[in-house]
## 1
Amino acid sequence: MKLYHDPNSRSVRPLVVLEEAGASYDLIPTLLSQGDHLTTAYRALHPLAQLPVLVDGSLTVFESTAICMYLAERFPDRRLAPPTDSPQRGPYYQWCTFVPGSLEPAFGREFQERNGGSVVPGTPALGAVLSVLSEALAERTYLLDSGYSVADAITGTTIALLPKYGVTLSASLRAYVERLRERPATNKAWSLSGL
Ligand SMILES: N[C@@H](CCC(=O)N[C@@H](CS)C(=O)NCC(=O)O)C(=O)O
């Protein structure tokens, strides 16, 4: 299994999952700053020439959320997703897609507003999105009542990065990041990525 990785990119999310899964994998350094993603060989793996990409034998998967969810199914014994017949499955899908569906657009809005740009109608404010997470995590250890899942790898890694962009986290979100950092696998992946 190979993960194309830049420590300053969304590839940190599947790196956390690979570590949490105890998978054996090769990290293929692909530095955006060096243009490593712009080669013909890399474009053959990702049609938008973006990170991350996972190659598992003859299978290639892009989109960081999809890779994380794929890895949860690929290593079922590690219980990184609730069972398919669990009522937690709905909240699992909800939280796995909350970062790409709500948090990333809200961060984009924040960035546009800071630079005096116009906002895409219907995009929630970053503060509102972070409040939703903050309230959910004030009541539970991880996003799902059933325990840790790849939804936490996706969300926690994103939240942990936000202070680097000048975003202040609530006490609930800071405590969540520290709880995740106490997990040896997550800590290893984050440390490898300067988090
Ligand atoms: N929705 C995609 C977004 C991928 C993405 O924007 N990747 C960034 C790095 S975090 C990238 O490769 N940027 C370089 C570029 O677009 O040229 C995902 O989650 O994988």
## 2
Amino acid sequence: MMKLLSAPRLRRAKISARLALALLLALLPHAAAHGARQLRRPARERAASATPRRAPDASAQAKIAGRDAAAAHPAPRPRLVLLIVVDQFRYDYLERFGDLFGGGGLRRLQQEGATWVEANYDHIPTETAPGHSTLMTGAWPAETGIIGNEWYARDEKRRVNNVQDDTARLIGGGEGERASSPRNLLVSTLGDELRLASNNRSKVIGISVKDRGAILLAGRMANAAYWYSSLTGQFVSSNYYFNQLPEWVRRFNDARPADKLFGARWERLAPLAEYERRAGRDDAPWEKYGNGTAPIVFPYTITGGLSAPGPAFYDALIYSPFTNDLLISFAEQAIVNEQLSADADTDILSVSFSANDLVGHRHGPYSHEAMDMSLRVDRQIEQLLNIVDARVGLRNTVVVFTADHGVAPVPEQANELRLPAGRVKISDVLNAVRNRFKARFKRPNVEQDTTGDYIQTYWGGQIYLDRAALERDGVSPAEAERVAGEAALTVPGIARYFTRTQLSNGAVSPADPVARRALHGFNPRRSGDVLIIPESFKYLTELGAGASHGAPYSYDTHVPLIIMGGGLAPGRYANAATPADIAPTLARLLRVQAPSNAVGRILLEALR
Ligand SMILES: [Zn+2]
């Protein structure tokens, strides 16, 4: 929990370790120094250099040059980084469903890779955009600027989406669909650093059903990001990247692969008893969503209620496992046509599987549907690994597997199981705040209540106060924030609050994990003034059904983190880790500059 605070200390420790090693190399006899260097080099290079010994004069030079000599003969870099993100995949799915996984997917990653079993996000809200923005930047939303899926833009007096870009034009897609770009991302990604280091030769491509899932992993300098249009069933992009889709993407779309899935039946992959044993009944009443008449039991036939492919069908498809299959076909075409890994400059392909999240929201983490999505994504990952093995070779690839956040149980189900769950209405919180404002700030000799406009808006657990209104009435913002927070606390189900003043002035302790997560999610330009934290298992929402995420609690923060390849020692690591550690660790493996604002630690325990 203290790792972020101690990052500089860790770095100092690493530097002094490096100094000590340099001293050791200078002092030790040649043979020992050579051995020490060898120990630090990856296995592949050790094998290659085992037979031809260094000439004596070269060794002497190496001794003089110290560690620089090892850097002159570095191990070959991986040709490809394959980042696999499964949206809303809780860590415990590996444990709950792992015995039903096939051999070549998630089980293979765990056997041949390094698995961190205690990886937790260290920010709130634990949502898709902040999570994705952290993965390849190694930075928290406070720095990436992606503080939520949406936030209130004060200057523009409107709510904006995390990848919204009104200056961009959508390439492909349907009428009225929004164009997206990484312009809101304030820091560099690993892909950006690779492209800087390689004079743009490294290729960086992001693919997902969600625009944010594709764009935020790839970064600002990316060659391309592609996402799925739920109006047309095609893969689209924006003119941030190019003015027309590459020929291979048009070919892919012209074959109308989504249409071939019209009427597809989604059935359970494993026997019913396995689902009932792990996830209870299929027709659980808390799974109702939409108007409450939608089907909630297997099997599902995916038509969107249409008799031929159309927008309602393309939209229905994203709530099934089948868009994951589309992503895999598209990823293969990207590898082949963009010639990923064809040269010595490392390329990055990120694939973010969104359907698991969409299904999870409807049915919750303890459902047949979420379980089946997990079993299927395991097979789909196996397929993707096999494609990469055939096209690139897994020995030339570093594979990363993780998720952008977890999910809490559906409150109605959790209640039935006697957990302290519930839905806290946002309107109740805002009413409490309004009443307290009136009681505290209404001027006694003025007839009219002028406190009515103090709340500018509410979004994403945050109250934005109208600064002009406060100034007009001579109310100090710090005081208004505190009064609002205390009022929110009077509503049952609200655990805590943090104010802009507290978060800006270092008045919260990073040793308090919830406070630290609030701090890591606070960006002064984009965040609100009062952050409201519900109690565990409680949702702050107006929605009456479905599962959600966003909290600082383990069900939302705990995710898988597996890195396979790159010379990492396979095994299970119980060291505390965060998904922000991925980018700095990969930067070390690839020997490029860490992303601009990376604060994650290098996962040294698995480096050989
Ligand atoms: Zn997500």
